[in-house]
Structures are given as C-alpha cells and as structure tokens.
Amino acid sequence: MTTITPDQIIQLQTICAGKFRSREERLEALSDLAGMELHSIKDLSKLQADELLYFFRTGRLVDHAAWGMFDKYNAQHKAVLSLCHQLGWVQEENPQFVDLHRLGGWLKSERSPVKMPLKDMNRAQLSKVIFALQNIIKTTYK
Fold this sequence. Notes:
Elements: H1 6-19, H2 23-34, H3 46-58, H4 65-68, H5 75-87, H6 100-108, H7 123-140
Helix pairs in contact: 1-3, 5-7
C-alpha cells in the first residue's frame, strides 16, 4: 500500500485544524469519509488522502462508480456483482442494486489485484478480481 505522504499529512492537518475542535472529532470525521476506522491520519493511503483533499477543496466526493460499471451480458461481471451482494456492498436506498461507487473504490485501492475499470478487464484479470472478492467473503464470514 502506498502510504500517505508527509506533504499530504501537512495539508490535511492544516485543513482539519480549522474544521474540527479535537483530534477525536477529526479522526471520526475522516473515518466516516474514508469508509474505514482511522486511529491516526497516517493510516490513510496516498489515494485516500488525495480523495479527502479533493473533498475538502471542492465539497464533493470522488465518484468511483465509473470503475464499477459492468456488462450485464458478461458472466464474470455477473459473478462480481453477486459477490458484491454477498459482501453487502449495496446501495442503502436500493439494496437490490450494487453500490458501484464502493466497488469502483475497491478496484482503485491497494487491495484490488487489478487496478483498472471493470469493463476494461480481460478474462484473466476478472478471474483475479473474483478470486480476491471470494477471499474477502471467506475472511468476513469465518
């Protein structure tokens, strides 16, 4: 995982100093925005820090949904969607639909074995993604 850079730490600390009263409040807010529990700002990856800085500068979250777009006629894409449902990666307002933002964010992350949009992947790359999602399910439900 590519860790947050010292420059990113300085930028986030500067922005957050004016927005949050305490370290705990800052970490809670950053945890909510990053989608994971943070014990320190140094727990963020470089990509997560870039996305948080983008949010604080523009007021908008980075949309990862384009990376999660799928072909409904591709059997491997259907398998990915099924695994996302099993993981609970679904839209809060429409639980029958996969949260493409979350899937796309995972595909961009260090945890994904293939860092490219779902539609751009070949069969071998899709197989790696499916295997990784299956392993996440195994560890989640142990």
